[in-house]
Amino acid sequence: MNVATPNLGKPRIGHSACPHDCPSTCALDVEISADGRMGRVKGSADNSYTAGVICAKVARYADRLYHPDRLMKPLVRRGEKGSGDWADISWEAALDAIAENFVKAEQKHGSEAVWPYFYAGTMGLVQRDSIERLRHAKRYSGFFDSICTNPAWTGFTMGAGTLRGPDPREMAKSDCVVIWGTNAVSTQVNVMTHAVKARKERGAKIVVVDVYDNPTMKQADLALKLRPGTDAALACAVMHVAFRDGHADRAYMEKFADDPAGLEAHLASRDPVWAAAITGLSVEEIEAFAALVGRTKRSFFRLGYGFSRGRNGAVSMHAALSIATVLGSWQYEGGGAFHSNSGIFHLRRSELMGLKLVDPDIRVLDQSQIGPILTGDPVALRGRGPVTAMLIQNTNPANVAPEQRLVKRGFLREDIFVAVHEQFMTDTAKLADIVLPATMFVEHDDIYRGGGHQHILLGPKLVEPPATVRTNLFVIEELAKRLGVADMPGFGLSEREHITRMLPYYETDFDGLKEERWIDCQPDFEASHFLKGFGFLDGKFRFRPDWTGTPAPNKPPKVLGAFGPHAALPVLPDYVEVIEAADEEHPFRLATSPNRSFLNSTFSETKVSREREGRPEVMIHPEDAAANGIEDGAVVRLGNTRGDIRLHARITGEAKPGVLIAEGIWPNSAHLDGEGINVLTGSDPIAPYGGAAFHDNRVWLRKA
C-alpha cells in the first residue's frame, strides 16, 4: 500500500509549483493533512499569473501520489526484454548493476557508448538537470534536447533576437488577444484567465488560430481553422492588408525594423486570396482578422508551441511574430507578441549541469532521433559507434518519441542495457533491464521557472516519500560514487545547496526563496516591449532572418551544424512548403494534438483522466468519413511509410476536411494493437536548428 511516512501534526497548506512540462508552471497551494498526506491542490491566489486557477488534472494530484500502480521498489528484468517478468532487487544491487553495465559499455566501445537520456517529466532544475553533470563528468554521449521547444524558440529569436516579451499578465489589459497555435483551455489555462478578464473588463475580442475546433476555439470571438503548416501564409496576408489599408506603423518600423520596404514589396503578391488557397480559410475570414488587429493598437499575440511543430515551424513562428512589428503593437501596454520568457531568468546552472566538464570532442546525439540512433543509423550516430547503455529519467521515449517502431526495436536489442528511473511502469520502463522507483514533486526540494510567465518558484518538500523510492539527484550521486567521479565539481551537494548556488543574482538562498515563495523576474516595460531596441546589436527587428547564423537559446553545437532543408527557408516572412504535404497515396494530414486530461504521457495512468478521455480516437470530418464509407465509432486504420495503427473513428465537424486529429498521447497499450500514435510521426529534424514535427504527417485512411 502506497502510504507516505506519517508527519503527525496539524493540517496545513504547503506552497509549491507544478513540476510538469507546461509553460504555466503554476504556483500551488497544497493541502497537507495532520497525518502528513497530500490532499487537494489549488492554484495560488497570491500569485499574479496563476491567479488561483489551475487545471483539473493537477488539482487531483493526490490520485497520482497514492496511485496503487505507482512503482514502489527497484526491479530487475529476468525474462525476455518487454516480457513483464520482473524480480525485486535492492537499491544497492540495482545501482551496482547500472554502474557495472556502464563500465562494460565504456570498455568495449568507449565512453560515448553510454547515453544518459532525459527530458521534462519534471521541470524542477535540480531533479531534471543533474543527469547532465554525470554525463559531462564521464564523457558520455552528449544530448541535444531538441524535441519540444526548438522550432518555436528559433523562429522567435530570429526576429526578436532574444527570448522574452511583454508581461503576459498584460493580456488582461489588451483589446484583442490572439491565441495562436495553442489550445490554452486544455494546456495553458492561465492564458485564458487573463484573456477572459480582458473580455469581461474591456470588451476585448479573443481570436484563436488553430487546426481544429478545440475547446479554446469554442471560446473565440473569431475562430480561424486553417490547414496544418500554413500559418505563415495567414501571417503574410495579414501583413499585406496592414500595408494595403494603412494599418502598418511605418514610423515605428523605420526606427525598429531592418527592411520594412523590402517586406512591403515582398508581400504585394501575398494577399488574402493567395492565403485562402493555401490555408483553407475564406478570404472574408482573413480580411476580418487583418482588419481587427489592424484597427486595434492593443493587440496581444500569444504565440504557442503547437503551430511550430511542423517542418516549417520556425518559419511560421517568425512570420506570426512579424505581424506585431508591422502594426507597431509593441508600443502599447496590452500589445505586442509573447511566446516565452525563458530568456529572462538569471539562474546560475553551470555547476549543477557540470558545464565546465564538457569535452567538445564528445559527440552530441539528437534526442528526437532516438529511433534511428538505437537502430544503428550512421548519420544519427554521427559516424561513430553504437549506444549500448542508457539511463533514462523524466521521459518516456517508447511512447512520446517519433518513429515509435524504431524506438521500440532499438530498446529490444540484446546488446543494449537500459535503466529507467520512473514513477509508473511506462512503455519505456516495460522495455528496461532495471527499473528504479522515483519520488514525486511534493516529496523532494526543487526550483522552477515559468517560461509562460515571469516567476522563479520554489517547490520545497511537503510530504515524506515512501521509504523505498528515491530522488533523481540521489541516483545521480550514487552512480557518481560508483563510477569514480563523485569528487568532481557539483557532486556531493543537496538539493537545497544546489538551489542556493543558483540564486546569487537575486541575493537570496533556499530559505529566503521559501519565505517569499517566488521571484518576479519580469523586465520593465521598455525592455519587455523592446522600446530601446530588439536583441540585436543594432536594435532592429529582423524581417530578414539569418537562418543559420543567428544565435538561439538552443542552437545545435557547431559539430552538428544546421538541420533539415535550411537552404530552402525564405529570405522574408513567407509560406514555404517543406512540410510533409498530402499526396495521392497519403491524402490526409495528421496532427497529434494534446488532450485536456493528459500532459504528454503523464496523467494517462489516473482513473479520472482515463475516464474523461475515453479511448484513443481519430477525429474525421463528416465529408471525409462519407467518402471513405466510415461510420462514427468504427475501427479505422491510419498509415504511412513509417507504419500503420488502428483507432476508433470520431466523426465530427471539429476537424477540417482533409485533416485528421488524434488527441492525447495514450499509452501504447491503450491502442488496439499495442502501438501508439507516434508510429506515424517522423524524426527528421526541422530546419534550421532541429525539433520534431509531431503535427506534420501525411497518412492514408481506411476502414479496418
UniProtKB/TrEMBL annotation:
The keyword Metal-binding applies. SUPFAM superfamilies: ADC-like, Formate dehydrogenase/DMSO reductase, domains 1-3. Residues 11-69 form the 4Fe-4S Mo/W bis-MGD-type domain. Gene3D superfamilies: 2.40.40.20, 3.40.50.740, ADC-like domains, Dimethylsulfoxide Reductase, domain 2, Formate dehydrogenase/DMSO reductase. Its cofactor is Mo-bis(molybdopterin guanine dinucleotide). InterPro entries: Asp_de-COase-like_dom_sf (IPR009010), MoPterin_dinucl-bd_dom (IPR006657), Mopterin_OxRdtase (IPR006656), Mopterin_OxRdtase_4Fe-4S_dom (IPR006963), Mopterin_OxRdtase_prok_CS (IPR006655), Prok_Mopterin_Oxidored (IPR050612), YoaE_C (IPR037920). Keywords: Iron, Iron-sulfur, Metal-binding, Molybdenum, Oxidoreductase. The keyword Ion transport does not apply. This is Anaerobic selenocysteine-containing dehydrogenase. It comes from Shinella fusca.
